[in-house]
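Escalated from tier 1: flavin mononucleotide holo job.
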Amino acid sequence: MSDRLGTVLGPLELPNPVMTASGCGGTGRELAQFFDLTRLGAFVTTSVMARPRAGRPTPRVTETPSGLLTAMGLPGPGIETFLENDLPWLSEHDVRTIVSVAGNSVEEYGELARRLRHVPGVAAIEVNIACPNVEDRGRVFAWHPTAAASVVRAVRDHARPGTPIFAKLAPDVTDIVTIALACVDAGADGLTLINTMEGMAIDPKTLRPALSGVSGGLSGPAVRPVAVRCVYQVHAALPSTPIIGVGGVATGLDALEFILAGASAVAVGTAVFHDPTAGPRVLRELDEALAARRIGRLADAVGLAHKPAGYVPPQVRAEEPAEERL
Ligand SMILES: Cc1cc2nc3c(=O)[nH]c(=O)nc-3n(C[C@H](O)[C@H](O)[C@H](O)COP(=O)(O)O)c2cc1C
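Tier 2 regenerated the structure:
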């Protein structure tokens, strides 16, 4: 793989910009049957919570014409087991690991950051704020700038100083830039855009909602234009804040679209379920796409869609006549 792919996300430097999306790479062991996880820029864990959770009853997943609708309810073994089994396995295998945390109260997020404070192998923390706040009638933290900021602040206050923190935002808000600003002001080093969008399907056979949770999170190709729009808007407002773009990335060109919108990395989620090797494949295709466009460094493509037409990044090979550039 070429060295054009190195990326810098604030305090987090990675050899390449392709990650797994939280919840889509299992514990890492499942994907490791298909490829060496050190080939990823980073592995993002499924969101870990303070205590074990069974998640929602089935059915939890239904297919839509161009994506998945899921209402998992964040099932997982909890932080204790995660620290005993999963994180050490990832560490032993030298996998750059971004630990995703989720909670139902500000205190729970703080507790998780505290538990991660003294353990090795945490390259960064991703704060999944798309969770209901039990202290606010179940209103999702990600929907309100003050609530989102209080979660990020709690993680910042309790995490090991210097640990890179990324806040993962939900797209179904009136103004994502306001939420992004609140998270950055509260101490987030970067943002992950986006989590799933709330959607719903009704089963024509049972005449009832297809999911036990009634509504669920829409992911896959259907959400990509929404995710690209969020990345574009947030990069325009906060050009120096690093962004991890997520939502429907299935090919190198999809990844390039996010990079051009302003992301410095991408995460591959739903695509992994039908192609477990999607991560390394997207990386190879992205490298080829950059080379085909004579873009010498990934960093030169970040946010390029914001530049006026005709702008040529400095690393584009000088000997190529402009009209021959793709
Ligand atoms: C089955 C499934 C489980 C997920 N679990 C999590 C999770 O634990 N934490 C989280 O922040 N996002 C979770 N997500 C959201 C993804 O990380 C991602 O933000 C979203 O699916 C959009 O990307 P995609 O279209 O590539 O899947 C989950 C998505 C799916 C489909």
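Residues 21-24, 46-47, 68, 70, 72, 74, 100, 128, 168, 195-196, 219-220, 223, 246-249, 268-270 surround flavin mononucleotide (CB under 6 Å).
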